[in-house]
Amino acid sequence: MTTTMDTLVVELDNQTELELDQIVEGQVISIAKKAVYVDLAPHGTGIIFGREFLNARDILRNTSIGDTVKGKVVEIENEDGYIELSLKEARQALIWGEAEKLMKAKTPMKLIVKDANKGGIILDWNGIQGFLPASQLSADHYPRVEDGDKDEILKELKKLVGETLEVSIINTNRKDGKLIFSEKGHTEEDKEKLITHYNVGDEMECEVTGVVDFGIFLKLEDGLEGLVHISEIDWSLVDDPRKLYKIGDKTKARIIEIKDGKVSLSIKALKENPWSRVEGKYNTGDIVSGVVIKHNKHGALVSIEEGVAGLVHISDFENEDKLRENLELGKTYSFKITLFNAAEQRMTLSFQGDK
Questions:
Q1: What is the model's pTM?
Q2: SS3 96
Q3: Fold designation for 277-354
Q4: CA 83, 86, 91, 95 torsion: positive or negative?
Q5: Closest Cα to residue 228, out of 242, 219, 220, 218?
Q6: CB-count burial class (<10 Å; 0-12, 13-18, 19+) for 42
Q7: Which pairing describes strands 332-341 and 346-354: parallel, antiparallel, or unpaired?
Q8: DSSP state of 92
Q9: Model confidence over 216-261: pLDDT tens digits?
């Protein structure tokens, strides 16, 4: 198989004059204490010395007279008449050439994550540092953090350090000596094409691919997933999606929005709305029993039936401590309905005392 380096050497053989930065090949004819001499007939004798000798000492350590080496021309003729060569730069030229070939072919490779920062992860390929932006991580490894909190994103990315990922090169930058990688098997263009196959209202069987504090991610098909926000999981209050779902679970969902390349789904939309059952059953002024299911900055959330809950405002008490003291989580109390609108799914309550 012809390598990138071989091609460069063949091109050189067809030229009558050397040029700077070209790759040449020749046999080692002499090894001195601080220099190596290479036969570059018909062009002359090459020399590797000084800084280039030190830079290539790891390569030259196992080099003997008669071995063939490839170097990059850094000086066509120095004051002593030698052609100055750089083995390290020749090696870099080969590596960058290979990187560009891999990028064009979109060849996958497995690399170990070396480090992470708030923007993505750090990889290493053949001694060249590479960067994989968080946006180019696969769905399995993407940091699912609500509101894009950078510190939380970094925590999630740090968990990948030491793991082996299958990635491909998507950009090379010889000048800065950096590579850009992607773990995605599908481009953004592919994703946009996939989204066009779906419409708001579509219902489908999906697989859970991620469970986070603010909801669950569902796979619609390879390369495309959507989010079920915690508020769209069930009509009843969901405190922790992890108690209901785990990765690999199957569930039905309905698409409720497609916007800016993102798909939003709802599971509760496929279930009967409990508010439709209570229209006419309760009215403002009724005294009811309810269970305290959550405290928040506005007061306490109280459920009078499964999926039907209203707020007891904090203003009914002296302060938050008094509210929590009088309305303990999980306990049942007597309340007066101060507002009831089943059509808008709104209810407010006033604390009456122990049941």
A1: 0.52
A2: helix
A3: OB fold (Dihydrolipoamide Acetyltransferase, E2P) (2.40.50)
A4: negative
A5: 218
A6: exposed
A7: antiparallel
A8: H
A9: 889 888 778 899 999 999 998 888 898 899 888 999 999 999 988 8
